[in-house]
Each structure stands twice: as C-alpha cells, then as structure tokens.
Amino acid sequence: MNTSPTPSFDGMPLDPVAAVTHADPYPFYAALRAGPPLAWNEALRLWVASRAEVVESLLLAHGALRVRPAVEPVPRAIAGSAAGEVFGHLVRMNDGAAHQAHRPALQRALAGLDLGAVRTTALRVSHGVPVQPVSDALFSMPVRAVAHLLGFDDEALPQVDRWMRDFVACLSPLSTAEQLQGASAAAGELMTRFEALAAGTPPRNGTLLAAVLAESQASAPLSRALLANLVGLLSQTCDATAGLLGNSLIAVMREPSLQQAAPTRGGLQAIVEETARHDPSVHNTRRFVAEPVTIAGTSLAAGDAVLLVLAAANRDPALNPEPERFSLERARRRMLGFGHGIHACPGQALACTLAAAGLEAVLHRTLDLAAMHERGWHYRPSVAARIPVFH
C-alpha cells in the first residue's frame, strides 16, 4: 500500500477535501502530485489521485469504478424523497442501462446548441439579474439563462432560480435536515413545472427543451427519468457555473492586464476557459470500486473509494506546460474538471458560454474591482466546489 501522510505546511490545508475552500490550495496540490500516484489518506479513508495520467486512467475505468457506491446509489439522507428520486435518475450521478438510455439524447441536444444564440440569451437574462450582492448574482445569471433555454418565461425565472438554489442542497453532504427538506420540496415543484412545460404548447425551436424532446423522441407525458434529467440540466449549471463565473471574476481582479481583454467577446471566453483550467469550480470528484482493479501499480479492492483531485491534475506539467501561468493564448489547453470518458460533462461549451456572458454582464455594471479585490473573498463550505463569496 502507498501510504502518504498528509503534507504539513504552515497555513496549508490539512487534506485534499479541506483544500477545496482554502485561499491557495495549489502548493498543497503540487505536493500531492510529487507523492505516490495513488496515496492512501487514513483520515479520509480513501485513496487520493492527483496526477493527470492517473486521474485519466481512473475516469476511464468505467466497469470497475462507479460514480456511486453499489450499496448506496442514492445518498441515504435523501433516499425515498422527491430529491432522491431526481438524484436516482441523473445520468451523471449513476451507472447502468437505465441511465445509458437517456445519456445520448442529452449529449446530442447539448452538442447541437447554437452557442451564439445561447450567448445572446444569456447576456440578456444576465443583464436583468440584480448584480448586488455579486455572490448571489453568480448563481442567478447562469441558472436563469438555462431555465429560459429550457422554456420558462421571464416571469418564472426568479422562482425557478429559488427552487434550484434549494434543490442543489441535496447534492452536498454538508446540508442540514432543514435544507434537505427544502431540496425535496423544490425537486417536486421543478418536476411538476417541467411536466407542464412539456405537455403544453410545443417549445419554441432552438430551445434546449425542444432539442432534448426531439433527440429523445419523447412525447407527453414524459417519463419521470427524463423529467429528472431536465432538472439535472439546471442543477449542473448551478454550483459549477457559479464557481466558474466567480473564479473568472477573481482572475480579472488579480491580473489587471486581463481587463484589457475583457471588453471583447473572444477575450471573455478565453478568460473563462483558462480559469476552468487554472482555478476551476470543481476541484474533485469521487469514484467507488465495484470490482478489483489495478491502477498505477496499486491494487484497489471492491468497496474502496478514490478521490480524484481534478484541480491538481489540471496543473500537472504533463498535462499543461507552464501550468502555474495564467495564459489566454494557451495553445493546447487541457482540463479534467468537466470529467473524462462516459461521465464527461457534455455541457462544457455551454457552461463556458454562460460564464462568459455572466462575466460580461457583471463587468458592464462598472463595479469597483480594485475595492472588491481589497475587501477580498472566502469560499462557500463545500467538499468539492470552489465558489467565492465576496466581502
């Protein structure tokens, strides 16, 4: 067994989960990469992978590794609730034939989006979101944009935004019983609203809802599984895109030269895409061993858990040359924060487009970036997502 003691630095995080919300976890991640390819963390009771090559191997080991433990496909805290029903159908959270049935249709629908039209919609919707407090706008801008793409009218967007903010609480192990109850209530409301949308007037051409229905050849009433995955399209947008937008804003604050690129559409997109590599919103994901497998010379047993530190892998020099440098002109930018293999997020281009539109809308409000930088920020409590809260 490769047993690696948790690196100890003054002011450094205690472990790779604590690192997610640390002010600067990247020296810690570099120390992880310098250790064993797979290191056992006794405190967390799991294996830790931080090198790009090892993380890629784990993401591609679909048969032996699963997204959820075989004995707990739905987290115990929400099993039997409306939130648990939605979670149990999400193609990105599960494995198996039932989930494979919907994945291709969702992938085709996302791949077929007109990103230029998406940007126009997202920019219009984002301009309608109150920019203060900025930390709330980070969530509302992308969620409302996707809700509009899914067929909700402008008047419904604030309510859908609130339901989604409530629902994503069920995805975090840090949520309270009250938050989990609110998540289930929100899940039920969202399922009902999507069912009504799909059964009503045919969605307008070009919307994400129209594309999903066409690609899945679905007709009303929709299956509960497809309804749940429509909710999932929103939930994937919420925390991850909020973090991407917020961390892109931090990049602009830290690098004054980026403010010259920000006024251009291509510059905004490049800032967001480099942020997704350099300081991503999702720092880790987990895999659970379903059958014995050997990865990077280490034998993993059924029942083992592995933490894949995606943010560390993104800064692996083997994946990206000069990984510590923030470069808009990076020739062959590679990142693992959106996954790899069958569980790769098909919405990567959509997420970056939404974040770039949100960033444009935020910067358009002529915020005092120097003052914001001086006041600083911290990160929302999370075991995986890096989402700033501005002071």
TrEMBL record:
Coiled coil: none
GO molecular function, one term: monooxygenase activity
EC number per UniProt: 1.14.15.12
Entry keyword set: Heme, Iron, Metal-binding, Monooxygenase, Oxidoreductase
InterPro entries per record: Cyt_P450 (IPR001128), Cyt_P450_B (IPR002397), Cyt_P450_CS (IPR017972), Cyt_P450_sf (IPR036396)
Keyword Glycoprotein found: no
Keyword Ribosomal protein: no
Family matches, as Gene3D superfamilies: Cytochrome P450
Ranges annotated as spanning the membrane: none
Similarity field: Belongs to the cytochrome P450 family.
Protein name stated in the entry: Biotin biosynthesis cytochrome P450
Gene that this polypeptide is encoded by: bioI
